[in-house]
């Protein structure tokens, strides 16, 4: 039984390129983001991976990344489930603001806390802890049972929704989460043991990149 779980952050979005806080706003992928998604799909296919079901968020940048990856793998018709539970964290009042402008207004340290800490909320938005409070129940109730039944599962989502999941899978403490960065379009390949813990993890390199 494979118990395969692959996590992928969406490719670069138009607002990533413009250095804007995005959250639940819904920009599309850039040309680079499209290339990243396709490269991730090719890398998975080249490594011999396949999927039985995919999960993604209600936001177009994750949905399109998922679709492009599956298209490159010859799985364009694969069942794909969308859920708001996998959305990016809500940046509240920061959404749409340039990150450099935010640092100028509130200071580097405060903006870093809003972006990277575990339990500090931006004004009107969610902390990573809040994001985990919706991501983890969905994972436990909906995604994990598929994996444990032997299905090969792809999750295409967002930096913070995936950070909250990786934090649990990799047993990372709240004091170390600030340093966790999930790259756009780089698949994280997990195989789970019979007790649902991680048996192995691989960061799968895109075309032309070195893995680790």
Automatic annotation (TrEMBL):
- Pathway note: Carbohydrate degradation; glycolysis; pyruvate from D-glyceraldehyde 3-phosphate: step 3/5
Q: EC number(s) of the enzyme?
A: 5.4.2.11
Q: Name one Pfam family in it.
A: His_Phos_1
Instruction: Give the GO biological process terms.
Output: gluconeogenesis; glycolytic process
Kindly state the subunit structure of this protein.
Answer: Homodimer.
What does the record give as the active site? 10 (tele-phosphohistidine intermediate), 88 (proton donor/acceptor)
**UniProt similarity note:** Belongs to the phosphoglycerate mutase family. BPG-dependent PGAM subfamily.
Keyword Glycoprotein attached: no
Q: Name one GO molecular function term.
A: phosphoglycerate mutase activity
Entry's SUPFAM superfamilies?
Answer: Phosphoglycerate mutase-like (SSF53254)
Which residues are marked as site: Transition state stabilizer? 158
What is the taxonomic lineage of the source species? Bacteria, Pseudomonadati, Pseudomonadota, Alphaproteobacteria, Hyphomicrobiales
> InterPro entries given for it?
His_Pase_superF_clade-1, His_PPase_superfam, PG/BPGM_mutase_AS, Phosphogly_mut1
Which positions does UniProt annotate for substrate binding?
A: 9-16, 22-23, 61, 88-91, 99, 115-116, 159-160
Keyword line: Gluconeogenesis, Glycolysis, Isomerase
Q: What is this protein called?
A: 2,3-bisphosphoglycerate-dependent phosphoglycerate mutase
Q: What does this protein do?
A: Catalyzes the interconversion of 2-phosphoglycerate and 3-phosphoglycerate.
Chain's gene name? gpmA
CDD domains xrefs: HP_PGM_like (cd07067)
Q: Which reaction is catalysed here?
A: (2R)-2-phosphoglycerate = (2R)-3-phosphoglycerate
Coiled-coil stretches, from where to where?
A: none
